[in-house]
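Hey, I'm writing a tutorial for new members on how sequence and structure tokens pair up, and I'd like a real worked example in the thread rather than a made-up one. If someone can provide the structure for the chain below, I'll link this post from the tutorial.
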Amino acid sequence: MPACKKEVKNLRLKQPVDDIGYTLPNDRGNITGNIANSGLVAEGDNYIYFVDLYNGGSIFSINRQTGEQKMIVKETARYLNYYNGKLYFMNFDDNESIYTINQIGEEKTLLVEAPAYDINIINDTIFFSNDGDNSTIYRVGIDGTGMKQLVDKSTWGLAITEDRMYFVDRDDSDKLYSANLDGSNVTKVTDDSVRNINVWDGWIYYVNRSDNDFIYRIKPDGTGRQLLVNEDCWHLNVFQDNIFYSNYDQGGLIYKTDLSGGKKISLSTDPGRYICFADNRLYYFSESDGDYKATYRISPNGTEKETVNYRKDNAKQQTEESVDLNFESFNVG
């Protein structure tokens, strides 16, 4: 019997949405929490951009005034950054190189011919882990010139701030390190094995692989280490005054808590992955038994759930809500 055809639907969304303080800063390409979740969503001046995991990893735009969606990049992409009117991304289909397009999806240009992970853009500089050079840390100008190695360590989970970079050292049991933006003063921050590095308001938040995937925070100088959430957590994103995460002790439901780990509440009724923020909304990605897959967005308080897109089996009627989800796995910083 032939396989049932699966169709991807991209829906018109409610736009514009109310400004509740969850717009992204405009002085960098994306926030560290989004990059830690593979950079699947970015916020532009007139559009929201997201990677459609259920449509080959293509990039779609959402018009911030009309809610209309449009595919603007067909290739598989990750690590979206919007900076000074252009969208930057890693193109899986071309040696994982860095490409740019303008905000409406035209003038696609190869910028950096190197396999680039964990792309961070700040102050007219692109920082990334160069997978073609043992995942060491590089920088390059916003115009693609002056590429230079900064840190000769095998890394992942790169997070850039105004004055420091933070990363996982693969050759030192995935411990957290930092360095100046020129690559000098490389310093170990903690002996914990970490992932999902988020830098927010003078703290580094991370999932502690050395302690049951609990959420911790620590000061950049290595002091003040605190346990915040003692549950199995993934897909950490710290933004504004809250910590958002997938709670695997509760089947992968999305939870939030305040920055001290108190006032914990559930935001979703279905499991979610790759938590990202744009335009006052939390985006997350779900799938069900291989037959139904969807991207959702909600208000950061858990209300106003919308289906961004979904893929369904045309031979069946599927509901929007799902309980048992089996995810494809790929690394998240």
